[in-house]
Specification:
The complex is a heterodimer. Chain A is mainly alpha-helical. Chain A contains 4 helices and no strands. Helix content of chain B is 41%, strand content 14%. Classes of the chains: A mainly alpha, B alpha/beta.
Amino acid sequence: MTREREVIAVLVELFREILGDPAIDLRPEDKESDIPGFDSGKKVLLILAVEERFGIYTQSEEVDGLCRVGDWVALVLRHSTTAV
Amino acid sequence: MSGGGDWRSRLRVIGLPVRRGPARNHRDIEQSGLFDLEWYVARVPDAGSSGLHPLDHYLTIGWKQGHSPGPLFDSAWYLHRYNDVAAAQLAPLIHYVRHGRSEGRLARPPLDALFDGFQSLGGNCEFGLVQRHFGSETLGLLRFAQVPIGGLIAALEARFAAFSPETLQVEVDDKDEYQIVLPAYGMRFHTDVYLGAVVADRVRENEGKRLGYLKRKFLQDLDGSAKTFVYTSTWIEKSSRKSIDQLLETLRSFGKHRLLWVTEARADRPAGSVERLGHHLMRGYMDRFSVDPAQCSFATWQTLCSEAARRLDSV
Protein backbone atom coordinates (compact mmCIF):
# COMPACT_ATOMS: atom_id res chain seq x y z
CA MET A 1 0.00 0.00 0.00
CA THR A 2 1.41 3.41 -0.91
CA ARG A 3 1.77 6.09 1.73
CA GLU A 4 -0.99 8.08 0.02
CA ARG A 5 -3.36 5.16 0.41
CA GLU A 6 -2.29 4.63 4.00
CA VAL A 7 -3.04 8.26 4.79
CA ILE A 8 -6.41 8.11 3.06
CA ALA A 9 -7.30 4.98 5.04
CA VAL A 10 -6.65 6.85 8.29
CA LEU A 11 -8.55 9.91 7.05
CA VAL A 12 -11.56 7.72 6.24
CA GLU A 13 -11.48 6.39 9.80
CA LEU A 14 -11.31 9.90 11.28
CA PHE A 15 -13.95 11.40 8.97
CA ARG A 16 -16.33 8.53 9.72
CA GLU A 17 -15.88 8.96 13.46
CA ILE A 18 -16.19 12.76 13.58
CA LEU A 19 -18.93 13.15 10.97
CA GLY A 20 -20.80 10.21 12.49
CA ASP A 21 -21.27 8.43 9.18
CA PRO A 22 -19.79 4.92 8.82
CA ALA A 23 -20.57 4.92 5.11
CA ILE A 24 -18.15 7.73 4.25
CA ASP A 25 -15.53 6.85 1.68
CA LEU A 26 -12.92 9.28 0.42
CA ARG A 27 -11.15 9.77 -2.90
CA PRO A 28 -8.41 12.35 -3.48
CA GLU A 29 -10.57 14.30 -5.91
CA ASP A 30 -13.55 14.62 -3.52
CA LYS A 31 -14.33 18.19 -2.46
CA GLU A 32 -14.83 18.83 1.26
CA SER A 33 -18.14 20.51 0.54
CA ASP A 34 -19.46 17.33 -1.12
CA ILE A 35 -18.84 15.16 1.95
CA PRO A 36 -22.10 14.64 3.87
CA GLY A 37 -22.16 16.49 7.21
CA PHE A 38 -19.00 18.49 6.55
CA ASP A 39 -19.02 22.11 7.76
CA SER A 40 -16.59 24.54 9.36
CA GLY A 41 -17.25 23.25 12.89
CA LYS A 42 -16.53 19.65 11.89
CA LYS A 43 -13.47 20.76 9.94
CA VAL A 44 -11.90 22.10 13.13
CA LEU A 45 -12.45 18.78 14.89
CA LEU A 46 -11.01 16.93 11.89
CA ILE A 47 -7.90 19.10 11.84
CA LEU A 48 -7.32 18.52 15.54
CA ALA A 49 -7.81 14.77 15.07
CA VAL A 50 -5.39 14.69 12.12
CA GLU A 51 -2.81 16.68 14.06
CA GLU A 52 -3.06 14.31 17.01
CA ARG A 53 -3.08 11.11 14.96
CA PHE A 54 -0.15 12.04 12.72
CA GLY A 55 1.72 14.11 15.28
CA ILE A 56 1.80 17.21 13.13
CA TYR A 57 1.16 20.92 13.72
CA THR A 58 -0.58 22.87 10.97
CA GLN A 59 -0.36 26.52 10.01
CA SER A 60 -3.39 28.67 9.25
CA GLU A 61 -2.57 29.24 5.58
CA GLU A 62 -2.14 25.50 5.02
CA VAL A 63 -5.57 24.86 6.50
CA ASP A 64 -7.08 27.63 4.35
CA GLY A 65 -5.72 25.79 1.32
CA LEU A 66 -7.57 22.56 2.11
CA CYS A 67 -10.32 22.04 -0.45
CA ARG A 68 -10.17 18.42 -1.61
CA VAL A 69 -9.29 15.18 0.15
CA GLY A 70 -6.06 15.14 -1.86
CA ASP A 71 -5.08 18.41 -0.17
CA TRP A 72 -5.47 16.75 3.24
CA VAL A 73 -3.27 13.85 2.12
CA ALA A 74 -0.61 16.23 0.81
CA LEU A 75 -0.71 18.19 4.07
CA VAL A 76 -0.07 15.06 6.13
CA LEU A 77 2.68 13.78 3.84
CA ARG A 78 4.39 17.16 3.86
CA HIS A 79 4.54 17.19 7.65
CA SER A 80 4.93 13.62 8.70
CA THR A 81 8.37 12.10 8.62
CA THR A 82 7.44 8.71 10.01
CA ALA A 83 5.32 5.94 8.57
CA VAL A 84 1.60 5.96 9.33
CA MET B 1 -34.23 46.41 -10.95
CA SER B 2 -32.90 44.53 -13.98
CA GLY B 3 -31.56 46.07 -17.14
CA GLY B 4 -34.46 44.88 -19.29
CA GLY B 5 -37.74 46.63 -19.95
CA ASP B 6 -38.67 49.99 -21.48
CA TRP B 7 -35.60 52.11 -20.77
CA ARG B 8 -36.83 55.21 -22.55
CA SER B 9 -39.86 55.65 -20.34
CA ARG B 10 -37.87 54.76 -17.20
CA LEU B 11 -35.16 57.27 -18.07
CA ARG B 12 -37.75 59.99 -18.60
CA VAL B 13 -39.28 59.23 -15.22
CA ILE B 14 -35.95 59.63 -13.42
CA GLY B 15 -34.96 62.60 -15.59
CA LEU B 16 -32.01 61.14 -17.50
CA PRO B 17 -31.22 61.52 -21.21
CA VAL B 18 -32.67 58.98 -23.61
CA ARG B 19 -30.11 59.42 -26.40
CA ARG B 20 -28.69 56.02 -27.26
CA GLY B 21 -25.48 54.76 -28.83
CA PRO B 22 -25.08 51.93 -31.36
CA ALA B 23 -28.30 49.92 -31.43
CA ARG B 24 -26.56 46.54 -31.50
CA ASN B 25 -24.72 47.23 -28.25
CA HIS B 26 -27.95 48.19 -26.55
CA ARG B 27 -29.88 45.25 -27.92
CA ASP B 28 -27.27 42.67 -26.94
CA ILE B 29 -26.82 44.06 -23.46
CA GLU B 30 -30.51 44.69 -22.88
CA GLN B 31 -31.18 41.05 -23.69
CA SER B 32 -28.47 39.89 -21.28
CA GLY B 33 -30.09 41.62 -18.29
CA LEU B 34 -26.62 42.46 -16.97
CA PHE B 35 -26.91 46.25 -17.17
CA ASP B 36 -28.88 47.49 -14.16
CA LEU B 37 -29.72 51.10 -14.86
CA GLU B 38 -30.77 52.24 -11.39
CA TRP B 39 -27.89 50.33 -9.77
CA TYR B 40 -25.38 51.94 -12.13
CA VAL B 41 -26.68 55.50 -11.79
CA ALA B 42 -26.76 55.18 -7.98
CA ARG B 43 -23.07 54.20 -7.89
CA VAL B 44 -21.62 56.32 -10.67
CA PRO B 45 -22.59 59.94 -10.01
CA ASP B 46 -21.22 61.16 -13.38
CA ALA B 47 -23.56 58.82 -15.24
CA GLY B 48 -26.58 60.92 -14.40
CA SER B 49 -25.07 64.24 -15.49
CA SER B 50 -22.88 63.34 -18.47
CA GLY B 51 -25.59 63.84 -21.08
CA LEU B 52 -25.07 60.25 -22.16
CA HIS B 53 -27.46 57.38 -21.80
CA PRO B 54 -26.13 55.54 -18.70
CA LEU B 55 -25.32 52.46 -20.77
CA ASP B 56 -23.34 54.59 -23.22
CA HIS B 57 -21.60 56.12 -20.22
CA TYR B 58 -20.61 52.64 -19.09
CA LEU B 59 -19.52 51.54 -22.58
CA THR B 60 -17.41 54.62 -23.27
CA ILE B 61 -16.24 55.85 -19.86
CA GLY B 62 -17.48 53.77 -16.97
CA TRP B 63 -15.71 50.46 -17.61
CA LYS B 64 -12.41 52.29 -18.09
CA GLN B 65 -12.89 53.79 -14.62
CA GLY B 66 -13.43 50.30 -13.20
CA HIS B 67 -17.20 50.54 -12.82
CA SER B 68 -19.41 47.50 -13.20
CA PRO B 69 -22.71 47.64 -15.12
CA GLY B 70 -24.68 45.89 -12.38
CA PRO B 71 -24.33 43.49 -9.49
CA LEU B 72 -24.16 40.43 -11.75
CA PHE B 73 -21.13 41.44 -13.81
CA ASP B 74 -17.75 42.53 -12.41
CA SER B 75 -15.89 44.57 -15.03
CA ALA B 76 -12.59 44.97 -13.20
CA TRP B 77 -12.43 41.29 -12.25
CA TYR B 78 -13.29 40.20 -15.81
CA LEU B 79 -10.43 42.29 -17.25
CA HIS B 80 -8.04 41.07 -14.55
CA ARG B 81 -9.05 37.44 -15.11
CA TYR B 82 -9.01 37.50 -18.92
CA ASN B 83 -5.90 39.22 -20.21
CA ASP B 84 -6.91 38.87 -23.86
CA VAL B 85 -10.00 41.01 -23.23
CA ALA B 86 -7.94 43.64 -21.44
CA ALA B 87 -5.45 43.67 -24.31
CA ALA B 88 -8.26 44.16 -26.83
CA GLN B 89 -9.40 47.29 -24.95
CA LEU B 90 -12.98 46.24 -25.45
CA ALA B 91 -15.75 47.04 -22.99
CA PRO B 92 -15.78 43.83 -20.93
CA LEU B 93 -19.56 43.49 -20.92
CA ILE B 94 -19.66 43.65 -24.72
CA HIS B 95 -17.04 40.91 -24.88
CA TYR B 96 -18.95 38.78 -22.39
CA VAL B 97 -22.36 38.94 -24.08
CA ARG B 98 -20.95 38.38 -27.57
CA HIS B 99 -18.16 35.89 -26.85
CA GLY B 100 -17.30 35.23 -23.21
CA ARG B 101 -20.59 33.69 -22.16
CA SER B 102 -20.63 31.15 -24.99
CA GLU B 103 -16.95 30.38 -24.32
CA GLY B 104 -17.81 29.49 -20.72
CA ARG B 105 -16.09 32.49 -19.13
CA LEU B 106 -17.29 33.80 -15.79
CA ALA B 107 -19.09 37.14 -15.35
CA ARG B 108 -17.82 37.58 -11.79
CA PRO B 109 -15.66 35.74 -9.29
CA PRO B 110 -17.07 32.49 -7.92
CA LEU B 111 -19.02 33.55 -4.85
CA ASP B 112 -17.46 31.11 -2.39
CA ALA B 113 -14.05 32.46 -3.35
CA LEU B 114 -15.32 36.02 -3.01
CA PHE B 115 -16.56 35.42 0.53
CA ASP B 116 -13.48 33.37 1.45
CA GLY B 117 -11.59 36.63 1.07
CA PHE B 118 -13.17 38.18 4.16
CA GLN B 119 -12.87 37.25 7.84
CA SER B 120 -15.55 38.28 10.31
CA LEU B 121 -14.75 40.02 13.58
CA GLY B 122 -18.39 40.02 14.74
CA GLY B 123 -20.22 42.09 16.13
CA ASN B 124 -22.83 39.36 15.45
CA CYS B 125 -22.99 36.16 13.42
CA GLU B 126 -24.82 37.51 10.35
CA PHE B 127 -21.75 37.67 8.11
CA GLY B 128 -20.84 34.11 9.10
CA LEU B 129 -24.26 32.97 7.94
CA VAL B 130 -23.90 34.97 4.74
CA GLN B 131 -20.60 33.21 4.02
CA ARG B 132 -22.30 29.85 4.54
CA HIS B 133 -25.15 30.86 2.22
CA PHE B 134 -22.62 31.51 -0.55
CA GLY B 135 -20.72 28.27 0.05
CA SER B 136 -17.81 29.76 1.99
CA GLU B 137 -16.87 27.72 5.07
CA THR B 138 -14.00 29.75 6.48
CA LEU B 139 -12.57 28.88 9.88
CA GLY B 140 -12.96 32.05 11.92
CA LEU B 141 -12.84 32.40 15.68
CA LEU B 142 -15.37 35.24 15.66
CA ARG B 143 -17.47 34.09 12.71
CA PHE B 144 -20.38 32.98 14.89
CA ALA B 145 -19.86 35.28 17.83
CA GLN B 146 -21.39 38.36 19.39
CA VAL B 147 -18.51 40.71 19.99
CA PRO B 148 -18.65 44.23 21.46
CA ILE B 149 -16.04 46.43 19.86
CA GLY B 150 -14.44 47.45 23.15
CA GLY B 151 -13.97 43.82 24.12
CA LEU B 152 -12.65 43.02 20.65
CA ILE B 153 -9.98 45.70 20.85
CA ALA B 154 -8.99 44.59 24.35
CA ALA B 155 -8.77 40.97 23.20
CA LEU B 156 -6.62 41.86 20.22
CA GLU B 157 -4.30 44.03 22.28
CA ALA B 158 -3.83 41.17 24.73
CA ARG B 159 -3.66 38.50 21.98
CA PHE B 160 -6.65 36.88 23.68
CA ALA B 161 -4.59 36.23 26.79
CA ALA B 162 -7.72 35.88 28.93
CA PHE B 163 -9.00 33.13 26.63
CA SER B 164 -8.39 29.65 27.99
CA PRO B 165 -10.53 26.57 28.66
CA GLU B 166 -10.73 27.62 32.32
CA THR B 167 -12.13 31.08 31.57
CA LEU B 168 -14.90 29.91 29.25
CA GLN B 169 -18.38 29.76 30.76
CA VAL B 170 -21.38 27.83 29.44
CA GLU B 171 -24.81 29.45 29.31
CA VAL B 172 -28.09 28.53 27.63
CA ASP B 173 -29.91 31.19 25.64
CA ASP B 174 -33.68 31.71 25.27
CA LYS B 175 -33.72 29.30 22.30
CA ASP B 176 -32.11 26.55 24.40
CA GLU B 177 -28.80 26.80 22.53
CA TYR B 178 -25.65 26.42 24.57
CA GLN B 179 -23.43 29.45 24.27
CA ILE B 180 -19.85 29.92 25.36
CA VAL B 181 -19.21 33.18 27.18
CA LEU B 182 -15.85 34.84 27.64
CA PRO B 183 -16.57 37.45 30.33
CA ALA B 184 -13.20 39.20 30.15
CA TYR B 185 -14.01 40.49 26.66
CA GLY B 186 -17.82 40.35 26.74
CA MET B 187 -17.80 37.78 23.92
CA ARG B 188 -20.51 35.20 23.34
CA PHE B 189 -19.99 32.27 20.95
CA HIS B 190 -22.69 30.15 19.34
CA THR B 191 -22.22 26.38 19.61
CA ASP B 192 -25.13 25.06 17.52
CA VAL B 193 -25.61 22.54 20.33
CA TYR B 194 -28.91 22.52 22.17
CA LEU B 195 -30.03 21.74 25.68
CA GLY B 196 -30.67 18.03 26.09
CA ALA B 197 -28.29 16.91 23.34
CA VAL B 198 -25.27 16.76 25.65
CA VAL B 199 -24.44 17.87 29.18
CA ALA B 200 -22.91 21.28 29.82
CA ASP B 201 -19.53 19.86 30.88
CA ARG B 202 -19.18 18.10 27.53
CA VAL B 203 -20.07 21.32 25.72
CA ARG B 204 -17.37 23.15 27.65
CA GLU B 205 -14.81 20.44 26.83
CA ASN B 206 -15.67 20.22 23.11
CA GLU B 207 -16.01 23.95 22.58
CA GLY B 208 -12.88 24.59 24.58
CA LYS B 209 -10.95 22.44 22.09
CA ARG B 210 -12.68 23.91 19.05
CA LEU B 211 -12.37 27.54 20.12
CA GLY B 212 -8.83 26.91 21.34
CA TYR B 213 -7.83 25.80 17.84
CA LEU B 214 -9.66 28.76 16.27
CA LYS B 215 -7.90 31.16 18.64
CA ARG B 216 -4.55 29.68 17.57
CA LYS B 217 -5.49 30.03 13.90
CA PHE B 218 -6.80 33.56 14.38
CA LEU B 219 -3.52 34.68 15.96
CA GLN B 220 -1.62 33.06 13.07
CA ASP B 221 -3.86 34.97 10.66
CA LEU B 222 -3.17 38.23 12.48
CA ASP B 223 0.58 37.61 12.28
CA GLY B 224 0.39 36.47 8.66
CA SER B 225 -0.26 38.07 5.30
CA ALA B 226 -2.74 40.90 4.73
CA LYS B 227 -6.35 40.03 5.53
CA THR B 228 -9.61 41.89 5.07
CA PHE B 229 -11.59 41.80 8.28
CA VAL B 230 -15.29 42.63 8.51
CA TYR B 231 -16.89 44.28 11.52
CA THR B 232 -20.64 44.73 11.46
CA SER B 233 -22.34 47.44 13.50
CA THR B 234 -25.89 46.26 14.05
CA TRP B 235 -28.73 47.17 16.30
CA ILE B 236 -26.76 45.54 19.09
CA GLU B 237 -24.10 48.20 19.13
CA LYS B 238 -23.65 51.38 17.09
CA SER B 239 -19.90 51.70 16.82
CA SER B 240 -18.39 55.15 16.56
CA ARG B 241 -15.87 56.12 13.92
CA LYS B 242 -13.38 56.68 16.70
CA SER B 243 -13.71 53.11 17.96
CA ILE B 244 -13.48 51.76 14.41
CA ASP B 245 -10.27 53.75 13.86
CA GLN B 246 -8.94 52.28 17.09
CA LEU B 247 -9.86 48.78 15.91
CA LEU B 248 -8.08 49.32 12.60
CA GLU B 249 -5.02 50.67 14.36
CA THR B 250 -4.94 47.58 16.56
CA LEU B 251 -5.27 45.28 13.53
CA ARG B 252 -2.50 47.18 11.75
CA SER B 253 -0.19 46.67 14.72
CA PHE B 254 -0.14 42.97 13.69
CA GLY B 255 0.17 43.28 9.93
CA LYS B 256 -0.97 44.96 6.75
CA HIS B 257 -4.63 44.24 7.38
CA ARG B 258 -7.70 46.07 6.13
CA LEU B 259 -11.07 46.62 7.70
CA LEU B 260 -14.53 46.68 6.14
CA TRP B 261 -16.94 48.35 8.54
CA VAL B 262 -20.57 47.54 7.70
CA THR B 263 -23.41 49.78 8.85
CA GLU B 264 -26.95 50.69 7.88
CA ALA B 265 -27.52 52.51 4.59
CA ARG B 266 -28.27 56.25 4.54
CA ALA B 267 -30.09 58.46 2.06
CA ASP B 268 -26.79 59.42 0.41
CA ARG B 269 -25.24 55.95 0.72
CA PRO B 270 -27.42 53.27 -0.91
CA ALA B 271 -27.48 49.69 0.25
CA GLY B 272 -24.66 47.67 -1.28
CA SER B 273 -22.39 50.66 -1.80
CA VAL B 274 -18.91 50.94 -0.34
CA GLU B 275 -17.13 54.10 0.72
CA ARG B 276 -13.39 54.33 1.17
CA LEU B 277 -12.55 56.08 4.44
CA GLY B 278 -8.80 55.66 4.21
CA HIS B 279 -6.12 53.49 2.64
CA HIS B 280 -7.03 50.54 4.83
CA LEU B 281 -10.60 51.29 5.88
CA MET B 282 -13.82 50.91 3.92
CA ARG B 283 -17.40 51.43 5.03
CA GLY B 284 -20.14 49.33 3.45
CA TYR B 285 -23.86 49.97 3.67
CA MET B 286 -26.66 47.46 4.22
CA ASP B 287 -30.40 47.92 3.81
CA ARG B 288 -31.06 45.78 6.88
CA PHE B 289 -29.49 43.31 9.24
CA SER B 290 -30.91 39.96 10.24
CA VAL B 291 -29.57 36.65 11.49
CA ASP B 292 -32.78 34.99 10.29
CA PRO B 293 -32.00 33.43 6.87
CA ALA B 294 -35.53 34.27 5.72
CA GLN B 295 -34.92 37.96 6.41
CA CYS B 296 -31.21 38.26 5.65
CA SER B 297 -30.36 40.56 2.75
CA PHE B 298 -28.06 38.15 0.90
CA ALA B 299 -28.17 39.99 -2.43
CA THR B 300 -27.05 43.23 -0.79
CA TRP B 301 -24.21 41.46 1.01
CA GLN B 302 -23.12 40.04 -2.34
CA THR B 303 -23.16 43.47 -3.97
CA LEU B 304 -21.34 45.04 -1.04
CA CYS B 305 -18.60 42.41 -0.88
CA SER B 306 -18.12 42.41 -4.66
CA GLU B 307 -17.68 46.17 -4.56
CA ALA B 308 -15.29 45.97 -1.60
CA ALA B 309 -13.23 43.28 -3.36
CA ARG B 310 -13.13 45.39 -6.52
CA ARG B 311 -11.87 48.39 -4.58
CA LEU B 312 -9.25 46.26 -2.85
CA ASP B 313 -8.04 44.95 -6.22
CA SER B 314 -7.72 48.48 -7.53
CA VAL B 315 -5.44 49.61 -4.68
